[in-house]
Amino acid sequence: MTYAECTVGNHIYHSRYLDLLEAARGEFLRHAGFPLLPLQESGVIFPVIEARLQYFRPARYDDLLVIELQLIQLKGVRLGVHHRVKRDDGTVLLEAVTRHVCTRLDDKPRRIPPELVAALTPWLVAEDADLA
Question: What pTM does this model have?
Answer without folding.
Answer: 0.89
